[in-house]
Records
---
Amino acid sequence: MLNPGSLKTRLALEAPAETPDGQGGVVRSHAVMTTIWAAVTPLSSRQDEAAAAAGAVVTHRIVIRSNFEVTLRHRLREGDRIYRIVAIRDQHDRRYREILAELRLD
């Protein structure tokens, strides 16, 4: 059983948003839907080279209460840190959601 007191990290839940650019296209960004409390635990890291930029990717386990609708299109933000959601599953009789997310460090 998860201790609710372990949800100590405040994260912003962001959803993709499109805004018209005035020239027939759109500007893609993310908008904050809500802020949530979470338990964030780093699991593993690896070196990554994307678009000729070397960096590290750290995989995290993030646990939140299940009363928030989260999909793979959402992302989580903690200040300048942006967590890309890779997988989501319910746990503890669907009272909590476990999210597997990646944080890129450049």
---
Amino acid sequence: MFKPKEYIGISLEGDSIKVARVVSEKNQLRLIRVDQLTLVEPIKKAQPASVLEKEPAGDVFDDDELDADLIFGLDDDSPDPEPESKKEGSSKSSDDDIFGEIDLDDLDADVFSEDENEDLVSQSDDSISNEKLIYDYLTTVESDNKQVAVNIPAGDTVFQFLSDLNYSEIKKKEVLEILEEKLYALYNRKPNEELYDFKIRDDGTLIIGSVDNESPTLKLMLQAGERFNLKSQVQDVLPDESVMMGMYRTHYEMNSEIITALLQIGKKKSRLLFMKGDQLLQVSPVINEGFDHKNYLSTIFSKILFQIDTGEVPALDQLIIFNNGNGKKVTDFFQSSFSELNVEEFAFNSDKLLYEESLTEIVPFYTTAIGLAEIAAKGDIRKNIDLSFLPSYVVDQQKIFRLQWHGVLLLVLIGLSPIILNFFYQQNSAEIDSLQLRSNQLNMMIADVNPLVTRSEELSQELSLMQDQLNLLRELNEDNIRWTVTMDRFNRALQNTGSTWITSFRQNDDVLMVDGYSLFKDRIPLLAGQFETVTLLNVRKQELRERDIFSFSMMIREVVDDRSLFTPGESAEIQQASTQ
């Protein structure tokens, strides 16, 4: 028995990698395994340009917004923030600060320069490198070509909301010009189309998502492939924010009136999105606190209140938590803080994803990785993804990889095709000649018969016309004979009776209404008795010219008992000819 093909979601989060594996079963996906790998060394990345993700009512670096952050104690974008663990007196290595904040004032074009020869991790010893860690794990997947989807860690993607125009009414070329202008102002360099994507909301708002550099998760996969000849196919590269939105749209019933907060909690930072129905409403600035910080729940709570107080989020109906590693502690805190909200961990729709009961307790910690696995499996979630950052060169390389062995096989077949075709031709040449001769004979026979076919069609048309005429004659003849026979039969009955005159003779459907006079009263029943079905309606005595006479009315249903008299031999012959 062949094992079902596995699809893999790989999510980088701080100093660890979360992996989820699913298989396709009919119209559903089944989660078969989740794992967490600790990196050998922290991943080095270029310092990102930290910007405020806010509505574009003012400048991107609006001083009023910064003042509001300082007032609420939410100055996440201030330079060199001190981690909470240091405030408590604990020591932290420089590796733990690798995802630290960058002072906005220190932005410089040099920060975006990256040494193309610089590796993601130290390459001094492949046996203990991050690439070897990925390679060793993926070799446990029984597939020659691994299907994977990887993430861009939460917070690495900068979101901008432009609502000054109705962008749904603007040509795409003009939208791209505006978009590139905004990105140039943000990064101080010409935008790389591989590093941004956009979506126009239903209300015409332009949502731009951009990153400084390629996904570190993607780089790790590509370097593992280069060093260890790891065959994998990257189906997509998505920000955690896009995965969260796609999963929510796929696994939950959408209601355009409900505003939902999507919260992803990591070790050192958290991400907060607001959705109205299936539309992205707002993305809060990165919250640089997570499970490793003591008061991270209070900080997140303050962030939510801040968004509501400033009016950027008009209200809130429910809170859905992704990657929850602390279970009920988190849900209970927010439920007690927002008593009127529906607070829950992300719940998968069982019609779309199944998993064993043994995985129930750990699934909430791997939400994003599972969503990536769904994307790798090309599930329904792909239709609900807005922003994607899969580089075109990766797609092209994978096309070349898929064509490599196909190309070799194709070249072999092309080389062998003349020999194979000649073999079959020689083997079947006699039959081919016989069939060709038979075909020529049939063509000659068809040519000879063509005039007969034409004449036959003409005769068929003439016969059809004659049949129509005969049918008309038969109908006319049938009524003529019917009334001739009927009147003849009635006149003979009247003659046999004698001393009786008819004043009116009417037909109503198949009934004859007869009115008349008789000199003798006993002649009236005598006349009626000559018909099978007759009703004598009335008989009245009258005086006419000093003599008593009797008027009568009768209804005759069948004047002629034998209806075959209506179709004599001549009429039957006409009918027979018309039906041939």
---
Amino acid sequence: MTRKKEAKKDFGRKCILSGESRSKSELVRFVVGPDGVIVPDIAERLPGRGLWLSASRDIIDEACAKNVFSKAARGQVKIPDGLSDRVEKLLRQRCLEIFGLARRAGQMVGGYEKVRSYLKAETAGVLIAANDGAADGRSKISALAPEIPLVDCFSGGELGAAIGRDRLVHAVVAEGGFARSLLVEANKLVGLQKRSGPKV
């Protein structure tokens, strides 16, 4: 079973606005709901033909303005107001859900000192730093493992709530499936954020 999962390839999909073929890790899937309304499918599990767009607020907004969904779906569809805002919210929820699952699976360590100790002894997949934490704290964590990707899309309150705490500023997720999934979704989230997001 493990070999099968590792051998699984991402053959990509075509962005319905640009026509470019891209990896699914760079795209957001949409489907047409039973009522004809366009629905974001962040987990890529909903039934129906997938309509794919690059994970970019500008791309999604342009797709809505030009109504390329109807052309791709071969029929009239309804586009809900604030679709890009909805996608951003769902991606944020998805990232925090993965973060919480990693913690419950024993694949996440939180707190500056614990993260520092972990990095010295274990293999990390992704570092997390709250975007409202001290800048020098982020710099120190990054310096300990400069080769490890850093995600800083979330506040300390959001990170804490995902694991049942009031606040969390620093964390690390072990190398593996949770880290890979978190990086994919966080990179999509950066493309949807209204502000200029951090590179992850």
